[in-house]
Automatic annotation (TrEMBL), chains A, B:
It comes from Chitinasiproducens palmae. Keywords: Hydrolase, Metal-binding, Zinc. The keyword Acetylation does not apply. Its cofactor is Zn(2+). Zn(2+) 2 binds at D93, E128, H382. Binds 2 Zn(2+) ions per subunit. Belongs to the peptidase M20 family. This is N-carbamoyl-L-amino-acid hydrolase. It comes from the Bacteria.
Length: 410, 410
């Protein structure tokens, strides 16, 4: 039996941690004080549910319900996601998957059923990558795709070192990341996009995840007076940055509008004064495509445009890779089991691809993995208006529990 | 006799107030602590030179050398400029004109000559408009072009109220702005542009000043997930802002490249996170043209583009006027006298227009005014690399003294 009231109540409580003064959102960026408060709450809830809690050296939180065969969590079934957020976030992105995992563990405990293998509920560090890049960092380190040291040395947008922040909030654990290798991995998440709602369907059976390419671009020109500098003598870092953002939308995305996505979410000028031509512009480029060759082509077109622009405007352009993940195809057997569960529970469903990156994408490197989606109202996420109806949240958790039961008994 | 060594020494000393930790510049934004430190130094130097110092209610500093006919400064000859700076500024913009005015007053004192009318050395508040708009604020209030109350109520880019900052640094004086009406006004300034250097000339005889249009534009879209939101469903405030900046350069400026200038010096995104489509973009537009109808046409094209863009992208666009000054033609007689002085001193010269806004532009509303320029190396200003050779600085001050002598005796 799934205690759905408790699940919804915990979602509400965790969603209240780090609430913004205005706008109804919350900001629980990884390894800030608000993230620590959220972690403390989660750890308390895990203990209360009888899980043994272990923290690894990148701060991933593992709550372990021992299995008949595997007490340690080695070779267990892992249900994971994250509890960090972007700035001014909704309440569901990440938390839903972690707390549903906890609800599944509670269901086993409450029923007095010992799973055949251990059940591990994981909350991975810094999935969002809002301050320290790359995103999906905790699960990437867990899967061996990034060295612990490189991750700890990551410098954030505020100049902070990730390892220092992790130690500061008291979540630099002892366990080696990846020490417990799961035999299978499931992640339940809100879709964060418009597809399920548009199709009027209840469950997304996620069989793949698109590729993600993140860069930070720094353009250096010459600060000069806005009133006295003839246009032909300008080296305007601000205009050059704007030209890149416009190029991405009007040329790169326009060439494959149903496939390639481009976003500049962060952009800063220096000195950022009304009558001074910007000396410097620093901005991010987020490129995505489910098709790897097409993602490569978008990156190449951007690169060529930057070279041309540097020449034309007399500016220096540097690019720094912040994250690069190829598209991932999830485990066919698990995907099939999710589909069968939805079917069994009488929930309409659709095989689909994920637009967002998820920890499942990283863990798929070391274990068979798949994901379950529920609809997002108006397809909105990374926004305080992110919303999924309670009954839909419960349906997703029921599918998760059903799949787990088929694998672990109970 | 002009004490040129003292002038250069004072320029060096004032230029050291508010020095940046790196980059060799200084940041003395109006009504900050650094501005207060600069003001204190200037006031001490004025007193030391025997001037009586008066501060008006917008914080303009007036150093008065009484004349034979006019002891109070009423109907005097005013030499003015400013000592506030942009962020990471050079040492000369503004300070040169104020300190050269002080050097001229000292020359009268040292020679024991009482001018026929009072000589007033003015340092106007917030000429740069880097934090609180409009720019040329102190001289604009002085000339009656902006009410004292509106100026005091100006809210800065950091949310501060100008009047509070002014009181905080102790420069909210008692004198009504504009109480002392000058009979003539001169301003000596670095060119801040490339013309004199390119032509190999020593003195700019400034006969006009281009129009300036400043706006703040706020675009509000919808924050959403960078990976899950199809392009056709986006309301991307960041892309829309970039499209405006690109449009200004590629369409508006391109239509009259030798006349219209457009600059976006400041731009900020919200929430400014790599994988979040910006909900909001706030940026400035600085448009200039020596020709008023052409400046109006540029404003109109921008307005039309914004309307089109709002429709196309489904974003809300608000514009706020921060400053608007029509082109100004300086006093023909004064311009002629400057030209004659340069001629007499054997200095090559050119009648020219000013690209930058200056306090002279405001004071021209209440008194005959004109300006003298000296060359700027590489045409660079609003940059720590701003530079004019000492001998050129001295030549400019000599022309200023010569013009003043012709008007005030000595
Ligand atoms: N699920 C989610 O929002 N992940 C953040 C990483 C991304 O930008 O896709
Ligand atoms: N001289 C000067 O830099 N004035 C600042 C106002 C402007 O932007 O032109």
């Amino acid at each position: 039996h799934l205690d759905t009231a408790r699940l919804l109540e915990q979602l509400r409580q965790l969603g209240a941690v780090g609430q913004d003064a205005v706008g109804g959102g919350r900001t629980r960026i990884a390894l800030t004080d608000a993230d620590k408060a959220g972690r403390d709450l989660l750890v308390a809830w895990m203990r209360e549910a009888g899980l043994s809690v272990r923290i690894d050296r990148i701060g991933n939180i593992l709550g372990i319900l021992p299995g008949a065969a595997t007490a340690s969590g080695q070779g267990g079934l892992m249900i994971g996601s994250h509890i960090d957020t972007v700035r001014h976030a909704g309440a569901l992105d990440g938390c839903y998957g972690v707390l549903a995992g906890l609800a599944v563990a509670r269901a086993f405990r409450d029923a007095g059923v010992v799973p055949t293998r251990a059940l591990v509920v994981a909350a991975f560090t810094n999935e969002e990558g809002a301050r320290h890049q790359p995103d999906m960092m905790g699960s990437l380190v867990y899967a061996g795709g990034l060295s612990l040291q490189t991750a700890l040395d990551a410098v954030g947008t505020d100049g902070s070192r990730l390892g220092d922040e992790l130690a500061r909030i008291g979540y630099a654990g002892k366990l080696a990341p990846g020490a417990l290798v799961p035999a299978d991995y499931l992640e339940l998440h809100i879709e964060q996009g418009p597809v399920l709602e548009a199709e009027g369907l209840r469950i997304g059976v996620v069989e793949s995840l698109q590729g993600i390419s993140w860069q930070r671009i720094t353009i250096t020109g010459t600060a000069n007076h806005a009133g006295t500098t003839p246009t032909r003598l300008r080296h305007d870092a601000g205009y050059a940055a704007a030209a890149v953002v416009a190029f991405l939308r009007e040329q790169v995305v326009a060439a494959a509008p149903a496939s390639t996505l481009a976003t500049t979410g962060s952009l800063r000028f220096e000195p950022d004064v009304i009558n001074v031509i910007p000396r410097k512009a620093v901005f991010t480029v987020d490129l995505r495509d489910p098709d790897e060759p097409r993602l490569r082509a978008a990156e190449a077109r951007l690169q060529a445009f930057l070279a041309e622009l540097a020449e034309r405007e007399g500016v220096v352009i540097e690019t720094e890779r912040l994250a690069r993940f190829e598209p991932v195809r999830f485990d066919g057997a698990l995907v099939g089991e999710i589909e069968a569960s939805a079917q069994r529970l009488g929930l309409s469903h659709l095989r689909m691809t994920s637009g967002a990156g998820h920890d499942a994408q990283m863990i798929a490197r070391i274990a068979p993995a798949a994901m379950i989606f529920v609809p997002s109202r108006d397809g909105i996420s990374h926004n305080p208006r992110e919303h999924t109806d309670d009954d839909q949240l419960i349906e997703g958790a029921r599918v998760l529990l059903d799949v787990v039961r088929r694998r672990l008994g109970g």
